[in-house]
Amino acid sequence: RTASRGDFVFSADRLIRLVVEEGLNQLPYTECTVTTPTGYKYEGVKFEKGNCGVSIMRSGEAMEQGLRDCCRSIRIGKILIQSDEETQRAKVYYAKFPPDIYRRKVLLMYPILSTGNTVIEAVKVLIEHGVQPSVIILLSLFSTPHGAKSIIQEFPDITILTTEVHPVAPTHFGQKYFGTD
């Protein structure tokens, strides 16, 4: 509550990095041999091609750098969804994805999962573009039980990764992170 914006962003970025790395652990990989500078052969792994990130604007954009820090050349799409203040219905205003997103595994980035409505609309848009829910991994920092349950009821094959499930979600995250509070 009393953290400076700098401390808040620092801590948020650390959490984001942990969630992103766990999301990457869920992606398919192949084994490979790496030759070190000393000539030693090391049996390692590398990601299979065909992964991408999609951020739900605006707060999801806070997670993009964490993904880029781990995967420099990963493609990132964006979705802008806003909820009507009176009806709480989510409406899609913008969606831009890699043209072959239907062949990719998708890391869907949205840090605060409250009702689940925004994510449900985002997944519907991804499905319209040929993405199967089973290849979507939702990366979230905080989730309410209601929000997670709503998404799983609608799309039982989606994977949700979060750091905490709590009845109250910190809905001020985006404002504090971007300094617009």
TrEMBL record:
<dbReference type="GO" id="GO:0005634">
    <property type="term" value="C:nucleus"/>
</dbReference>
<keyword id="KW-0547">Nucleotide-binding</keyword>
<dbReference type="GO" id="GO:0005737">
    <property type="term" value="C:cytoplasm"/>
</dbReference>
<protein>
    <recommendedName>
        <fullName>Uracil phosphoribosyltransferase homolog</fullName>
    </recommendedName>
</protein>
<comment type="similarity">
    <text>Belongs to the UPRTase family.</text>
</comment>
<dbReference type="GO" id="GO:0005525">
    <property type="term" value="F:GTP binding"/>
</dbReference>
<dbReference type="InterPro" id="IPR029057">
    <property type="entry name" value="PRTase-like"/>
</dbReference>
<keyword id="KW-0808">Transferase</keyword>
<feature type="domain" description="Phosphoribosyltransferase">
    <location>
        <begin position="3"/>
        <end position="166"/>
    </location>
</feature>
<dbReference type="Pfam" id="PF14681">
    <property type="entry name" value="UPRTase"/>
</dbReference>
<dbReference type="InterPro" id="IPR000836">
    <property type="entry name" value="PRTase_dom"/>
</dbReference>
<keyword id="KW-0342">GTP-binding</keyword>
<keyword id="KW-0539">Nucleus</keyword>
<keyword id="KW-0963">Cytoplasm</keyword>
<keyword id="KW-0328">Glycosyltransferase</keyword>
<dbReference type="GO" id="GO:0016757">
    <property type="term" value="F:glycosyltransferase activity"/>
</dbReference>
